[in-house]
Write a structure and sequence with these properties.
Blueprint lengths: L5 H24 L4 H25 L3 H28 L10 H15 L6 E7 L5 E6 L2 H26 L2 H31 L14 H12 L5 H22 L4 H82 L8 H32 L8 E4 L1 H17 L2 E7 L5 E4 L1 H17 L4 E10 L2 E8 L6 H4 L22 H11 L3 E5 L7 E8 L3 H8 L1
Parallel strand pairs: 4-6
Antiparallel strand pairs: 1-2, 3-5, 6-7, 7-9, 8-9
Helix pairs in contact: 1-2, 1-8, 1-9, 2-3, 3-4, 3-5, 4-5, 5-6, 6-7, 8-9, 9-10, 10-14, 11-12, 12-14
Amino acid sequence: MINFGNIELFVLGIMALAIAILGFSVLFNDKKSASNRAFFLFSMVTVSWGIANYLQVRITVPDISFMLIRFVIFLGTWHAFALFNLFFVFPKKELVFPKWYPWLTGGVAMISLMTLTPAVFSSIKATAPEGYVTAINVSPGVTVFLLVVAMLIISGITFLIQKTRKASGAEKEQFRLVLIGTVITFALLIAFNIVLPIVLERVKQLPYTIISLVPFVGFVFYAIQRGLLNIKVIAAEMLLFAMVAIPTIEVLLARNATEATLRILLILVLLVVGIVFIRSVRREVEQKEKLQKLSEELEAVNEELKRTEKLKAEFFSFAAHQVKSPMAVIKGYATLIGDGTLAGVPQEKIVEIAKKISTAASRTLAMVNNLLDMRKIEEGRMVYSFEQINVVPPIRTIVADLETLAKDKSLALTFEASQEEVVLNMDIQKFTQVIQNLIDNAVKYTEAGWVKVSVSLNDGKVLFTVSDSGRGISKDFAAKMFSQFARDPALAQDTKGTGLGLFIAKQIVEAHGGKIWASSEGEGAGSTFSVEIPLDNKAVTEKMGS
C-alpha cells in the first residue's frame, strides 16, 4: 500500500522536473561535449535518487521499504561518482580518460552492488506504525561504503579547487561560487543520507533530501544572471517547466487511476514537444550568435584594414621622403660632374663622391625591391627557385661583404659554422637576402661592441643566428616587429628603413618551411635573431616552388 503526501510529492515532483529539464537541455545543447554528458548523468542520477528517497518512507510494506533504503544507498554511491565525474570533466568538451578511470568505475560498481546486500544493511531494526522502516541494523560493509563516497566527494571537490586556482578574472569568481554551492549541497546530502539514517538511525527525513539541491539550483540561477546561458533558451525552458508543472499538479489531484494515467501521458507529450521547441530556439540563438560573431570578426577585419591603410599612407609618405633624399644626392653630384665643377678635384675626392652616389642608389634600389617583394607576397606572386645547396659559403660571403660596414662603426663582425657543409633545399638568392637584412640591422642598431653570425645543426634542423651587443628590443616592439611597416618609434628618428625587411624575411623563411624569431633581455641589452630551417624541407619547398 502506498500513502502519498501530496505536498511532499508536489515539492519532489517540481524539483525533480526542473533538474530533469535542465539536464536534458544541457545535453541537447551539445551531445558530443564530455561536460554536457557528465552534467546530464549527474542530473538523471539526482532525480532517480530523490524519487527513491521519497518512495522509501511512503511505502508502508516494511520489506519493500527496506529494499528501497538499500536502493537509495546504491544510487547514493553513483550520485557521488556522478559528482566526481562532473568535476573531473568540466569544462572540457573532449577528454581522453586516464587508464585508471575504468578501474575506478569498476570499483564504484562493485561497492554499489555491495550496498544491495546484507554487507551494508543487514536487517530491519524498527518500523513506524504506518509500516515504513524507521531504523536499520548496519554491517561492517557500511564503513567501506562511507569511505568510497567520501573519497569520491573529496576528490571531486579537490579537482574543482585546483581548477578554481588556475582560473582567473570573472571565471575564477564563478568557480569559487560553484565551489561554495557544492560544499553546502553535499554537506546537506551527507546530513540527510548518512548522519541521520546511519549514525542517528532516523530515516523519516529522507523525503526532504531534495531540499539539499536548493544551493545547486540557486547557483544555476546565478550562472544565468552572469550570462552563462542565453535568456531566450532559459525562457523556453521555463515555459516548458510551467507547461509540465500544471498537469503534474493535476496528477496529484486525480480522482482515479485512469485520470492520472491520461495526465501522465499528457506530461510525456508536452515534454517531447517542449524539448523539440527548446532545440529549435537553441538553434536560432546559435545562428544569431554565429552571425554576431561574424559581424564582430568583420568589424575587426575592417578596423585592421583601416589600420593597414593608415600605415600604408604613412609609409608611402615616409618612402617618398626616403627616396627623395638619396635621389637628391645622386642628382646633386651628377650635376656637379656634368657642369665640370669637379674638374681638377683630387682622385680621392672623386672616389668618395662615387661611394656616396653608390650608397644612395643602393638605398633607393633596396627600398624599391622591398616594395616589389611586398606586393608579390600580398598577391601570392612571389616566385621561388629552390635547389640543393651548401649554405655555409654564401653566408660567409655575406659576412665578408659587410665587414667594411662594420669596421666603419668599429664593430667586430665574426662568423662561425659548426661544419663547413650544410646542404639545404632553398632559394639561395632570397634566403641570403634574409641573412643580409639581419646582419645589416644588427650593424645599424649597434653603436659599439660586436655582431656574431653563426650556422649550426641541431636535431635535424639548421639554425642561423645573428647576435649583437646593440640597443636590444623593447617589449612593445617585440610583439609586432615581424608585421608590415613595423618600426620601433624609439629608433625611427635615428635610423633609416621601411619597416618591411623583417616582414619579408618572415615570409621567405616560412616559404622554406622554417621559422624566425627574436630574443632580447630588453633595451640596451643586445638581441639575437634566429632562423630555423628543417634539413628535410623538400616537401614544403616543392609546394612553394610549384
